[in-house]
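Hello, quick one for you while I still have it in my head. No rush at all, and the record is pasted right below.
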Amino acid sequence: MIDIVDAQETFKSYLKQYNENDDKIALKIKHTYNVLNVCEYISREAGLDEENINIAKLIALLHDIGRFEQVKRFDSYSEENIDHAEYGLKVLFEENMIRDFIKEDKYDNIIYKAIKNHNKYKIEEGLTEQELLHSKIIRDSDKIDNYRVKETESFEALFGISEEQFSEEKLSEKIYNDFLSGKLIDIKEPENCIDCWVLYIAFLFDFNFPFSFKYIKEKNCINKIIDRVKYKDYDTNLKMQNIKEFANNYIKSKVQ
């Protein structure tokens, strides 16, 4: 049995070792709870039973548990420092913290595989049907809430630079062309912060459920993200408007 309320209390206790006034820590705490809500939304839209809904919510609660130590050690979200999913799995399963969140081990493989795959470029092969289902749910939910994060959080918290500095950057030709090819962008490819901005927008090319497209369309996510910035480079501004048009047409086609 999964007791989500109890698991959330355990999560709060775990966070006491971290500075919740740190913008990067606070961002990830809020992100975790929002991903939990999106996981529940997708699970219910998919018609899953309460058992699988609770599995999805527990995975959401734990999916970024490695982020907090990453920020504490490196003051960064960069995967060059640490793979936060792999570190989270170490904490949960090698150090056996998973038993603090759920006493029985019947869901361990599902939780493990979903967390492992949530931040990878693509889902690994050879998963069971249930492992694959929950990997897809957490990937979509994580990406969806990343849109909210990019709409609302400061550029200092997101990238470690000011909004003014961000607005002056130039979008690389490769990232631009990859986006207009409908291609999910590998995290190793961006040359600067604005390339990363487009990488996040390109998350929509990796959604697994029609409800995900419906959600971001209703929330107007793409327009809010792109229109948030006044791109000072003329060519970059044109490219971002083209990206916005392409993205909205893509979402429209998926919703229909």
In short: The chain is about 65% helix and 0% strand.
